[in-house]
Amino acid sequence: MGFSKDNLTGFILALLSSGFIGASFIIKKKGLRRAAAASGVRAGMGGHAYLLEPLWWFGMITMIVGEVANFVAYAFAPAVLVTPLGALSIIVSAVLAHFILKEKLHKLGILGCVMCIAGSVIIVIHAPQERSISSIQQIVNMATQPAFLLYVGSVMVLVFILIFYFAPQYGHTNVLIFTGICSLMGSLSVMSVKALGTALKLTFEGKNQLIYLETWFFMFVVATCVITQMNYLNKALDTFNTAIVSPIYYVLFTTLTIVASIIMFKDWDGQSAGSIISEICGFIVVLSGTILLHVTKDFERSSSFRGNAGNYTPLSPTLSTRLCSGNGESLKHDVEEGPSSEEIGYFQVHPRCCDNLLKLLASGNFCSCWKTIKLTF
């Protein structure tokens, strides 16, 4: 399908956005490393020396430029086209990290990059044309249609249930709680961003939309949704491994955003069944590539850890697990019985920990039975 002028503009802006955002991660990380080397305290350990590092600020400015480009892209092209292209920032980041930060890109990671590019190409080829919108009132009419109101109502109910019922009980054990809140609110924020961006675009074209209360309402919705989204995304990242949070969040956020856009802006109206199926397939390929990229990142970290653990001491996992439980009576009972043949395995313990481990075993209730435990040095 041929590109309209607006679709082409939105596509180029989305590509630029992915490039800037992907590069910003590398630039900021270089800045963090340089600041840590100068101050001796890493940001992860509470250091703030990076705030005085020009390279880190350059990375932050690069990210802001990328986000602005992404914001403007929604004013020109449908969310079905713009949102999945965000996966390309992961490719930019992974490739630059391989060459600049010397972080090895696994062969499966390369396959993930190829899948993201292939899926994006499929989506771009079959993307629907952007609808012509002449006023903010037209967007309000789209936002107040029964189907979209039902979607918004469902999202708000789910968000309230997740925040007030599930989050306090399961938020720190189930990654879907926090990422679900982020994704649901994110889908509404993108719809509001598109409405606000379109209003600003019309204003710059000479049709002032800032005089309408609806424009400011969409601005308020954007601020509310983004603040909530970032709050719970930070909670998810603080609680769970990034390699788990990132792909789950991307899948949920992108899927819900596309669904919301299809309902509100009728992106698929007038498209053939073949084009719609092609878009869905391209989207699935992009999601698969994104997940593969994140999985291989975690794989590389694990391989690196195991590679540096050659001097660690094997220990029975049954004993090790219970040592961390803090239950003295359970420890005594299990050490006396000894692990069964099915339970015997190996757990990596650094040699520096051995002295403390032996002192722990020799004290308290273990002094009479610690000899039954075999430690291999």
UniProtKB/TrEMBL annotation:
Keywords: Cell membrane, Endosome, Ion transport, Magnesium, Membrane, Transmembrane, Transmembrane helix, Transport. The chain crosses the membrane at residues 6-27, 55-76, 82-101, 108-128, 148-168, 175-196, 216-233, 240-264, 276-296. It is found in: Cell membrane; Early endosome; Membrane. InterPro entries: EmrE-like, Mg_trans_NIPA. One of its GO terms (molecular function) is magnesium ion transmembrane transporter activity. GO terms for cellular component: early endosome; plasma membrane. It is a multi-pass membrane protein. Acts as a Mg(2+) transporter. Can also transport other divalent cations such as Fe(2+), Sr(2+), Ba(2+), Mn(2+) and Co(2+) but to a much less extent than Mg(2+). Homodimer. Belongs to the NIPA (TC 2.A.7) family. This is Probable magnesium transporter.
